[in-house]
Design a protein that fits this description.
Blueprint lengths: L3 H32 L3 H27 L5 H23 L1
C-alpha cells in the first residue's frame, strides 16, 4: 500500500525528472544540429538517447517507490517536460 505522502513525493520527483529530461533533450538536439551528423548516426543516437533516459527514469522510479509505475508518474513526466519547454520558449522570446 502506497501512502499519500509517498505518492506526492513520487509525483514531485518525476515532475523534476521530466523537467530535466526536457533540458537534456534540448541540449541533445543542439549537439546533434551543431555537429551535423549523418541521418544513420542520428537514428542510432536517438535510439541510444531514448534507452538511456528510459533506464534513468526507471532507476529513479525504483529508488523512489520500488518501481511502481502508475498513471500519475507518466503524467508528471509529461507535465515536467511541458513546463521546461514553456519556460524555455518564454526565455527565448525575451
Amino acid at each position: 500500500m502506497i501512502f499519500l505522502i509517498d505518492q506526492i513525493k513520487t509525483f514531485i520527483c518525476m515532475l523534476i525528472f521530466g523537467f530535466f529530461t526536457g533540458l537534456i533533450f534540448n541540449l541533445y538536439q543542439f549537439i546533434i544540429h551543431h555537429f551535423k551528423l549523418k541521418r544513420f548516426l542520428i537514428h542510432i543516437s536517438d535510439t541510444l538517447f531514448s534507452i538511456i533516459l528510459g533506464i534513468l527514469g526507471f532507476l529513479l522510479l525504483i529508488y523512489i517507490n520500488h518501481g511502481i509505475l502508475r498513471f500519475y508518474v507518466i503524467l508528471a513526466i509529461i507535465i515536467g517536460f511541458a513546463i521546461y519547454y514553456s519556460v524555455a520558449n518564454y526565455v527565448k522570446k525575451i
